[in-house]
Design a protein that fits this description.
By secondary structure, the chain is mostly helical. Helix content is about 75%, strand content about 0%. It is globular, with a radius of gyration of 23 Å. The protein starts with a helix and ends with a helix.
Length: about 300
C-alpha cells in the first residue's frame, strides 16, 4: 500500500477522533467557545505546515483579497455549523449530510467555473443524495436543527473548496493557512464572549486533544497528497463514516437501523465510483498524452519517395 494512502488513513481517522471528542461536549460549552479553543490548539501542529521560502508576515499580501476573505468566512461558517451538528444529532447522520459536499462542489463548478460534468458523475452524485435521504428520511421522522446545520456545513465547505480552486495557484500558502485560522479565532472569540464559561481542567484537556488531533490530521493530509495521487487519497475519506458508526455506538449509544446502514453504504459506494472514474479518466488522458509525445520511428525517405531514377 502506498505510503500516501497510509498517511490519508491516519489523517481521516484522527479527524474522526477529534470530531468524536467535540460531540462529547454536548451543550456544556457554546459552539463558538468549542470552535475557538479547537482552532487555537490546532494551530500548534499546523505551524509545522508552513512552506519553505514563505514568511508568516506575508499572509496579508493577497492577489485576490475578496476571494481569500470569502474562503475564510465560509470556513468559519462550515466549522461552526458542523460543531453544532456534532453536539445535537447522531454522529453518522452528521457525516452522511456533510458528505453531500461533492454534489454542491459539482454544481458550483458547472455554474461558476463553467466546467463540463459527465452524466455518470451526476448519476453517482444523485445516488449519493438518495443514500443520504435513506439515512435522514425527511418526512418520516422529525428533523432537528442539527440536520440543517450539517447540510449548511456541506454548502459552505463546497464554497471553501471552490474558491480555493480559483486562488490556490496564485496565493501564498501561508495566506491560505493563516487567514482562515485568524477568522476562526476572532469570530469565535467575539461570539463566545456573551455566554463564556471557563472550561474546567478536564474540558481543557479534551479541547487540547481534539484541537491537536485536527491539527495533526491536517499535517498528515498534506503528507498524503505529496506522496500519493488524489485518486488514491480521496476514497480514504469515507473511512470517517466507519469511524462515526463505531465511535457513535461505543461512546454515545448511537445505533443506526438497517435502512440507515443501507443509505451509508450507498453514500460510500457512489463516492468511490466517482473517484475511481476520475482516476481512470486521468490515467487514460496521461497515457494518451505520453503516447502523443513519443517520437515515431524514423522513416527512410527513400521508402516514401521511391527509388531514384
Amino acid at each position: 500500500m502506498p505510503i500516501g494512502v497510509l498517511y490519508a488513513i491516519a489523517a481521516y481517522s484522527i479527524y474522526a477522533c477529534g470530531d468524536a471528542i467535540i460531540k462529547g461536549f454536548g451543550q456544556t460549552l457554546s459552539v463558538f467557545e468549542i470552535g475557538f479553543f479547537i482552532a487555537l490548539f490546532s494551530l500548534v501542529p499546523a505551524m509545522f505546515a508552513k512552506p519553505k521560502g514563505e514568511r508568516w508576515r506575508d499572509s496579508f499580501r493577497l492577489k485576490h483579497p475578496a476571494l481569500v476573505h470569502l474562503r475564510s468566512f465560509s470556513g468559519v461558517a462550515s466549522s461552526s455549523l458542523v460543531t453544532f451538528a456534532f453536539v445535537t444529532i447522531p454522529f453518522a447522520e452528521t457525516y452522511s449530510l456533510v458528505f453531500m459536499m461533492p454534489l454542491f462542489i459539482t454544481a458550483m463548478s458547472v455554474l461558476l467555473l463553467k466546467e463540463r460534468v459527465h452524466a455518470m458523475r451526476w448519476t453517482m452524485l444523485l445516488a449519493g443524495f438518495a443514500g443520504v435521504m435513506l439515512v435522514v428520511r425527511p418526512g418520516f421522522r422529525e428533523l432537528e436543527l442539527g440536520h440543517l446545520a450539517a447540510l449548511g456545513c456541506a454548502f459552505f465547505g463546497a464554497t471553501t473548496t471552490t474558491v480555493l480552486r480559483i486562488v490556490a495557484s496564485e496565493e501564498k500558502r501561508v495566506s491560505l493557512i493563516a487567514l482562515p485560522a485568524l477568522y476562526l479565532l476572532v469570530v469565535n472569540a467575539v461570539l463566545m464572549a456573551p455566554s463564556f464559561i471557563m472550561p474546567n481542567w478536564q474540558q481543557f484537556a479534551l479541547l487540547l486533544a481534539s484541537g491537536s488531533f485536527i491539527g495533526m490530521g491536517h499535517i498528515l493530509l498534506i503528507a498524503a497528497t505529496r506522496n500519493a495521487p488524489a485518486s488514491q487519497v480521496a476514497p480514504v475519506q469515507y473511512v470517517q463514516i466507519v469511524w462515526a458508526i463505531g465511535l457513535g455506538a461505543y461512546f454515545y449509544a448511537e445505533h443506526p437501523d438497517l435502512l440507515a446502514y443501507a443509505g451509508l453504504a450507498v453514500v460510500i459506494l457512489s463516492g468511490l465510483v466517482n473517484v475511481f472514474i476520475d482516476g481512470a479518466r486521468a490515467r487514460i488522458a496521461g497515457r494518451f498524452a505520453e503516447y502523443r509525445a513519443r517520437p515515431g520511428p524514423k522513416t527512410n525517405i527513400t521508402e516514401v519517395q521511391g527509388p531514384e531514377i
